[in-house]
Design brief:
Largest sheet: 5 strands, mixed
Number of helices: 11
Order of helices and strands: HHHHHHHHEHEEHEEH
Number of domains: 2
Structural class: alpha+beta
């Protein structure tokens, strides 16, 4: 009947792999990831199944960490996009949950199946697909979103999960398989009961972080919309004011033209045009992007900051939701930094133009002299409270939604933010 045991173990190894593949984020394309996984994991599975046949479950259970866990950890670490606590937690989660099913079916077969491996095989045939259904139905989508949204705090969860895996592996197999140590079975069963409860606490904590992130993002978007609406209202008030003043301008121009003072009328008309541009704050032809600049330029002027704006976009259709999100977060961050500097050191420049196949946004502002940010890293916020620290991650997320990227760094006392977005995105949305 050992063939049933071997088949159940092969089934378990395959589904550990499937579960992990469902939850982690690869750095390669799906096709390349599947090829690398099939080659490396196929070799490890064959190796461990051969060891199971030659040396038995007792021996292989003791060396399983060395023959399967650590090699697969190295392989997936090389393939994974995340090489930090997020990856280790996902890896340990898949392995620990699978080991829990293996342990439960092993104990159940010993007590209720007479050790004939029939109940073990049936249990694993049923539980692993059920686990994957639950993962697809309820866990995968929020878990992937959580990995994207929460960059920190995974290390302690990964450590807890790794300790549970080691605990199950040791208690289940050392010095011999746990079913041969009757006096230790109650303690082992308590660990099996405790583990799901611990995971429930972990996922509850992580899900609350996700809800907090969503709420803060929603509040930030609402604030951006509020700022845009306030700017549009201000523009409407300026337009009404211009309409009122236009009557006086018309009278003046009529008088100048009637008296033949053409040059004076042209000069006066030029002044009216400049006044209109000043009131409307015309930075670019796109009304949404223009509204963002009107709002923040006025805030920079209140600080007495030197502000240089160079916008080279026309009336073409732009993904204004993402671009306004990028610009609002970047300018809000810059405003917060400039507010903390001495009055004579407040400078900011904004360039937004096309370069071949890309739209480039570069925002450069003065910063503290002791601030040092390497290109490609995102600095942590030093502000207090839970509503801070989302600006740069939000910018990066918005840029990636458009198929672009973001980078930031410091140089010569200035903080530089660069965003690059493919122009084809604009064409697709037209």
């Amino acid at each position: 009947m050992t063939i049933l045991r071997d088949l159940s173990m092969l089934w378990s190894l395959l589904h550990i792999l499937i579960l992990f593949m469902m939850l982690y984020r690869s750095r390669y394309t799906r096709k390349k990831t599947l090829l690398l996984t099939a080659f490396s994991m196929g070799f490890l599975i064959v190796l461990n199944m051969a060891g199971l046949v030659l040396y038995g479950a007792g021996i292989m259970g003791k060396v399983f960490i060395l023959t399967c866990t650590l090699p697969s950890l190295l392989v997936f670490w090389l393939i994974s996009r995340d090489r930090n606590g997020r990856f280790f937690f996902t890896f340990c989660l898949a392995d620990t949950v699978a080991l829990w099913i293996i342990s439960v079916t092993n104990v159940a077969d010993y007590y209720f199946g007479g050790g004939q491996y029939v109940l073990m095989l049936i249990g694993r045939l049923a539980l692993f697909p059920l686990l994957e259904w639950v993962a697809v139905r309820y866990i995968r989508k929020p878990y992937m979103e959580l990995q994207e949204a929460v960059p920190n705090g995974w290390g302690i969860f990964a450590g807890m999960t790794a300790l549970y895996y080691i605990l199950l592996a040791i208690m289940g197999n050392f010095p011999v398989i746990v079913t041969a140590r009757q006096q230790e079975l109650p303690a082992f069963l308590l660990v099996l009961v405790l583990m799901p409860m611990t995971y429930a606490i972990i996922f509850t904590s992580l899900y609350r972080q996700l809800q907090l992130y969503r709420r803060q993002q929603a509040e930030r978007i609402l604030q951006e919309q509020k700022n845009t609406l306030e700017t549009q209202l201000e523009s409407q008030q300026n337009i009404r004011r211009m309409k009122h003043d236009m009557k006086g301008h018309t009278v003046t121009l009529s008088g100048l033209l009637a008296s033949g003072q053409i040059k004076e009328a042209q000069t006066y008309l030029k002044g009216v045009e400049e006044e209109m541009d000043t009131l409307l704050g015309q930075y670019c032809s796109n009304p949404y992007i223009n509204a963002v600049f009107i709002h923040y330029v006025s805030k920079f002027e209140e600080l007495g900051a030197e502000c240089r704006i160079e916008i080279q976009v026309g009336e073409e259709t732009l993904p204004h939701m993402e671009l306004c999100q990028i610009l609002s977060n970047a300018l809000e961050n810059a405003h917060g930094v400039l507010r903390g500097l001495a009055a004579g050191k407040r400078e900011i420049s904004v360039r937004m133009k096309y370069n071949k196949a890309y739209l480039l946004i570069c925002i450069k502002n003065s910063c503290m002299e002791n601030l040092h940010v390497e290109r490609g890293t995102i600095p942590a916020t030093d502000k207090k409270g839970n509503d801070h620290g989302f600006g740069l991650p939000t910018i990066k997320e918005a840029a990636e939604r458009l198929g672009g990227d973001m980078t930031c760094y410091t140089e010569k006392g200035s903080f530089v933010l660069e965003v690059m977005i493919p122009s084809k995105v604009f064409q697709e949305r037209c």
